[in-house]
């Protein structure tokens, strides 16, 4: 009898324990404060307190030494630009900004100031229109010739053209795979080829060779006179479509270029073999990010300078590819080298003055400090140039003129209702492109 009683008590205790455990588990699963079944929610809540910093987000920048005046009275003025180095320096322009001539062309359905660059000749100007028609104007805006070498179906694709000149040859690559050459004097076709992929870069010329990069991150070398391929160099590709053109320069028998994942590669100009390569970004990050942008590469012959919209500004040794210095500046605008200074403008409108050799920032001017923060988000800079002692900056249909000496805005001129190109300076004239028209100012 005692054994049966003991067994009965054990059975009752077990039942009570089971009921107790079920009750606890039931409360945990229903209680929003549970630490057991709601662990995923708690983890999500815990993760929500972690601030994810987007790599492209600009750092909080404040003015630095904004009242410092820099003496540029002995500044060397360039009469021409070194196109192979992308080194424009300070160009000769008086800054009167009187509109003296226009060059008209058929409007683009989608106008992007970054994609457009005319060819300036001593007595003429060359540009293209919506359907890929190449137009040569004289200095009075009169059309000397215009020719189109695209089929009806190709014209519908609105080809975007990049130009370069060698002797009497105009070299062209486009974003629909064509590479061709026409005679500068007559506009007649010299030769035409089809590339494996569309092109997405400027063109650089060296002796009888010219170079361009396609969308697959392949650097191509062609013969100027017949379009035959000299060599090609494949670099790592990404799954993203770039938002701006790749850049390349030619210096010391090297072709140095950027690609869509932030790699900078130096290649022997004769063999196409890699001399050095500098990765600046994680390929995994780039493949997940669709708005990575790098400025054009610029060189003084010894160092390479470029920046991106991930708060990185680099100085790189041309010979070795090693980083001289790196600073936190958010800009995909082409920097300018003047004497021992580098000038750039951040994507939120700060003018940076940087020591070229040391990388020290010596002055930061907020060009739009009187603008409301919400208005600053709408900035869309397409580029800037320096003419003598003034900065000329394109921003959403307006040209802003800034004193190089003190970094203050002197004047803002409305050019168009929408986007305009970066400014160009040639033979003491300033040029701007708006949709359907190139405007020349004296």
Characterization of this structure:
This protein has a 5-stranded mixed beta sheet, with no helix packed on it. Strands 2-33-32-31 form a 4-stranded antiparallel beta sheet, with no helix packed on it. Strands 3-4-5-6 form a 4-stranded antiparallel beta sheet, with no helix packed on it. It has 442 residues and is mainly beta. Mean pLDDT is 85; it is low at 1-8 and 20-56. The relative contact order is 0.13. It has a domain at 75-117 and 339-442: Beta Barrel (Lipocalin), CATH 2.40.128. It has helices at 2-30, 39-48, 152-155, 283-287, 373-376, and strands at 90-91, 99-104, 119-120, 124-128, 134-138, 143-147, 161-166, 169-174, 178-183, 189-194, 204-206, 209-213, 218-223, 229-234, 248-251, 254-258, 263-268, 274-279, 298-299, 303-308, 312-317, 323-327, 336-338, 341-345, 350-355, 361-366, 381-387, 390-395, 398-403, 409-414, 424-426, 429-434, 437-441.
Classification by helices and strands: mainly beta
User: Which class of the domain at 75-117 and 339-442 in CATH terms?
Assistant: Mainly Beta
Oligomeric form of this entry?
single chain
- Return Rg in Å: 29 Å
Helix content: 10-25%
Q: Strand order across the biggest sheet? A: 1-27-28-29-30
How much of the sequence is in beta strands? 35-45%
Q: What's the β-strand tally?
A: 33
Spatial shape = globular
- Stretches where pLDDT is under 50 for at least 5 consecutive residues are 1-8, 20-56
Termini separation (Å)? 119 Å
Sketch the major β-sheet: 5 strands, mixed
Mean pLDDT value: 85
- What CATH architecture of the domain at 75-117 and 339-442 do you see? Beta Barrel
Number of helical segments? 5
